[in-house]
């Protein structure tokens, strides 16, 4: 047996010794740190294997990031996500791995794609958030731990998304695959919303609704607000509105029939899901998205019919009682009722917050929450009032200076992308792709003004990452036209063969 071991060791070099040392370390950690410490060491080989696979199959790693980002909150709600692991951690790890791969393998990386207004805007916001470390409005001293936690969620996750998308979504095929991946994930969320409506809640959703006390927001005056795979109904409805706008734009502008059909169906189903959420803001998000698209289209053939169809849709909600028997449509219609009491709760909260924020132009500090502020501090009450809006949340943490700077940075990014679509892209299909991201970005930000959803999963990666790709589209236009021509040729050939087969049957 000793001889066999020596022979095996000679053939496999130092791997046997490495495994033996790992085994000793795991036993040592079990004795000194318990089962968690032992598990960490035992997981090391799997971590090394994952990093190796990530380097070997970088696009698989990217799509894994996209998938986890979309469904991590759904897994947590279903109690399928390991307890104790922050939901943001996998996103950050995968993004950092993808950035590290690009730095290590510079031959296949395209860091020149980062030279655009998107990165300028994000770095501007990140710089302000770094300065916020020195904000001591509450008189509690410098809380580096709370600040770092806050800046990861308020700034760094935006930066990671922009860098990763600029480096990896750099071919026409990947541009389309990104939309297909988004549509497939959204359609699963739509299906899950349908399942909640027609089949019922899972045990995890029931626990979340009743034990964790979320039923008050999702069961309003006898109306059930469905949330699909999302964090809540507001996030679900607004995301579906932004997605529907994007998919409809692809349907209107694309030349390839199969794409028009697929994204048209996806847009219709996402619109249905938007209504099932009962999120009234979603209607205005959809309107804003279409307005951006019409402004960028530069085509009377698009502007006139789309304006008429969408105008009739809005007029139906405002001036008629069509569909009034449906709870979700009735709730959506109440969005246009300025005297609706529940719709004005946010304004009441903003008024209460503004009294205290007059003395806090820099906010109470990034990462500062109710638990961090003592009872005697006057800003305690500010941390206790529900912000109801992402912009109000940012206002409370960074003051009017911070929320104004955040808005300026995002306007720079959006206007830069719109300018790129309007002036630098000639191909109609490619213009539609760029306009879809601009419209979706506008829609999700309007939703963030009314609801605290902008920085919730999965919105940051999708909308900030998606808008980043717009700046790359002019460079890809020639390659995109070649790709489109091949797809159209395949489509034409299939049509010709189908016609020949049909004619042959008549003979």
What's the gist of this structure?
By secondary structure, the protein is mainly alpha-helical.
Question: How is this structure best described in words?
Answer:
Strand 1 and strand 2 form a beta hairpin. Helix 9 packs across helix 12. The mean pLDDT is 83. This protein is mainly alpha-helical and 507 residues long. The longest helix is centred in the last third of the chain and has 35 residues, at 390-424. It has helices at 2-11, 15-33, 35-42, 44-56, 58-77, 89-104, 117-131, 144-168, 172-198, 203-211, 215-218, 233-253, 257-277, 281-297, 300-319, 327-333, 345-357, 380-384, 390-424, 428-450, 459-470, 473-506; strands spanning 219-220, 223-224. It is globular and about 90 Å long.
**Elements, N to C (H/E):** HHHHHHHHHHHEEHHHHHHHHHHH
Q: State the separation between the terminal residues, measured CA to CA.
A: 79 Å
Q: Low-confidence parts, pLDDT < 50 over ≥5 residues?
A: none
Number of extended strands: 2
Question: Which structural class matches the secondary elements?
Answer: mainly alpha
**Helix percentage range:** over 70%
Count of separate DSSP helical elements: 22
Specify Rg, calculated over alpha carbons. 26 Å
Mean pLDDT across the residues is 83
Strand content: under 5%
């Amino acid at each position: 047996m000793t001889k066999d071991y020596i022979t095996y060791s000679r053939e496999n070099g130092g791997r046997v010794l490495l495994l033996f040392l790992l085994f000793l370390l795991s036993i040592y950690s079990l004795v000194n740190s318990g089962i968690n410490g032992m598990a960490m060491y035992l997981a090391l080989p799997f971590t090394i294997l994952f990093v190796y696979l990530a380097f070997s199959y970088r696009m698989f790693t990217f799509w894994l990031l996209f998938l986890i980002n979309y469904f991590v909150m759904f897994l947590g709600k279903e109690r399928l996500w390991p307890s104790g692991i922050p939901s943001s951690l996998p996103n950050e790890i995968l993004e950092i791995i993808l950035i590290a791969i690009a730095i290590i393998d510079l031959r296949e990386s395209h860091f020149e794609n980062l030279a655009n207004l998107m990165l300028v805007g994000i770095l501007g916001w990140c710089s302000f958030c770094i300065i916020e470390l020195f904000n001591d409005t509450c008189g509690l001293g410098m809380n580096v731990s709370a600040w770092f936690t806050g800046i990861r969620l308020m700034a760094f996750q935006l930066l990671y998304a922009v860098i990763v998308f600029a480096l990896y979504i750099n071919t026409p095929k990947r541009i389309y695959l990104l939309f297909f991946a988004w549509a497939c994930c959204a359609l699963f969320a739509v299906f899950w919303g349908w399942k909640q409506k027609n089949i019922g809640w899972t045990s995890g959703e029931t626990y979340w609704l009743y034990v964790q006390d979320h039923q008050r927001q999702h069961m309003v005056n006898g109306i059930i607000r469905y949330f699909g795979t999302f964090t809540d109904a507001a996030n679900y409805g607004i995301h579906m509105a932004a997605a529907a706008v994007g998919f409809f734009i692809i349907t209107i502008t694309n030349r390839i029939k199969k794409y028009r059909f697929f994204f048209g169906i996806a847009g219709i189903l996402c619109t249905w899901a938007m209504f099932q959420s009962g999120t009234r803001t979603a209607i205005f998000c959809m309107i804003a998205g279409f307005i951006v698209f019409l402004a960028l289209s530069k085509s009377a053939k698009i502007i006139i019919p789309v304006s008429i169809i969408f105008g009739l849709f809005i007029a139906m909600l405002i001036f008629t009682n069509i569909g009034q028997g449906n709870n979700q449509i009735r709730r959506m219609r109440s969005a246009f009722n300025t005297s609706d009491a529940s719709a004005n709760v946010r304004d009441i909260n903003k008024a209460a917050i503004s009294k205290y924020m007059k003395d806090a132009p820099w906010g109470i500090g990034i990462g500062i929450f109710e638990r961090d502020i003592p009872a005697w501090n006057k800003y305690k009450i500010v941390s206790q009032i529900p912000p109801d809006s992402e912009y109000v949340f940012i206002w409370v943490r960074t003051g009017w200076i911070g929320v104004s700077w955040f808005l300026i940075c995002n306007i720079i990014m959006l206007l830069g992308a719109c300018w790129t679509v309007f002036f630098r892209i000639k191909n109609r299909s490619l213009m539609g792709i760029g306009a879809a991201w601009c419209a979706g970005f506008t829609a999700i930000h309007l939703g963030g003004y009314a609801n605290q959803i902008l920085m919730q999963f999965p919105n940051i990666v999708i909308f900030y990452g998606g808008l980043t790709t717009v700046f790359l589209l002019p460079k890809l236009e020639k390659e995109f036209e070649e790709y489109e021509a091949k797809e159209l040729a395949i489509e034409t050939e299939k049509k010709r063969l189908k016609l020949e087969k049909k004619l042959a049957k008549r003979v």
